[in-house]
Amino acid sequence: VDLDTAKQELEEFIPHVRNISDSSIRKMAGRDLVRFKQFKKQGIAVKFGRFSQKENNQIRKNVEEFLQITGIDSAEKLLFTSRYPEDKETINRLKAEHLFCEKLSEGIPRPWRLIYYRARKMFDPNNYKGRYTKEEKEKLKKYHAMHGNDWKKISEMMSRSNLSVAMKYSEIKSAINYGPWSKEETQKLMHAVEEVIRKRIEDANSPSSSEKSNRDLLIDREKLYQKLPWTEIETKVGTRYWRQCKQKWTTILTNKMTKGQQLYRGTKGLQAKINLIKRLYAMKVEDANEVNWEELSNIIGDVPRAYVQAKFYKLKVSCVPFWQKKTFSEIIDYLFKKKLPELEEKL
């Protein structure tokens, strides 16, 4: 299909597709369109966000089956072929012959690229090596001075994953401030977010104002806090780590949207927790990725979804014993049966 047709067809499944580069859209048209249409026939929506345990298990199954079919020694060889130059030609031929793209994404309603990145993260033996030592941090600074942002090269030199070295360098590259935000830092953050959002709106082919519907207005509002390029914003702020920028921006948005009201204090806070538990229980979902956090934000007030997710995280950590060992539905059941009566009595 031509590029415009591909954009039109993909937009049904990926609303933000017009913000994606043309080369990525062409790849998605080849790898994803047919799969997305098949999932639609089965009544399954395309997913984004964190991978569920079920999806991780499906990736493991797909990789193991592909290794059995092809006889490739390990998942590392399959997903990090460039580390094995002597076997590269054979592995690439086997991947092409046995339709690696189709096999890896089997049964997972997500863009292929995201499935591939997730598989690489899961099967990279360099990805789970614990904290960085002082010596490693010094090496990382030295290698970055030599090779810039060539994370692939640096990751090979340090035997850590690309993502790990990039994120760690982002953390240590400058004197990060961990104290209260100054007025100047807050202004820098607001200007940085404004810049990236303005650029996105200018780059997108937005319809004329007469064509704008309520759906378009909702999407405009979502641009304020969804899928923002936090490492880019971190660079513009200069004195804060990207995660701090994200948390601060959520706080700023919450204050703006609620006009500074304390929504999660006193009786209002108790009522918000009760409503949140009841609504989550009524949804009957098996996984946190299936929750529509946008819809749940109305329970607490007019707040960003990240604020609701943070409040739910605090609730489960403080109220559910051994929550790490429980499934999402078990956590919700516990909150509904054990915590809810306590909260209602307190209220």
Automatic annotation (TrEMBL):
The Myb-like domain, residue ranges: 124-172, 173-253
Which GO molecular function terms does the record list? chromatin binding
| InterPro entries, A to Z | Homeodomain-like_sf, Myb_dom, SANT/Myb, TTF1-like
Cleavable signal peptide: none
Example GO BP: termination of RNA polymerase I transcription
Coiled coil spans: none
Task: Extract the Pfam families matched here.
Answer: Myb_DNA-bind_6 (PF13921)
Output the Gene Ontology cellular-component terms.
nucleolus
Which residues does the UniProt record annotate as the domain HTH myb-type? 124-161
- PANTHER family recorded: TRANSCRIPTION TERMINATION FACTOR 1 (PTHR46760)
UniProt-recorded name of the protein: TTF1 factor
The organism encoding this protein is Sagittarius serpentarius
* Gene transcribed to yield this protein: Ttf1
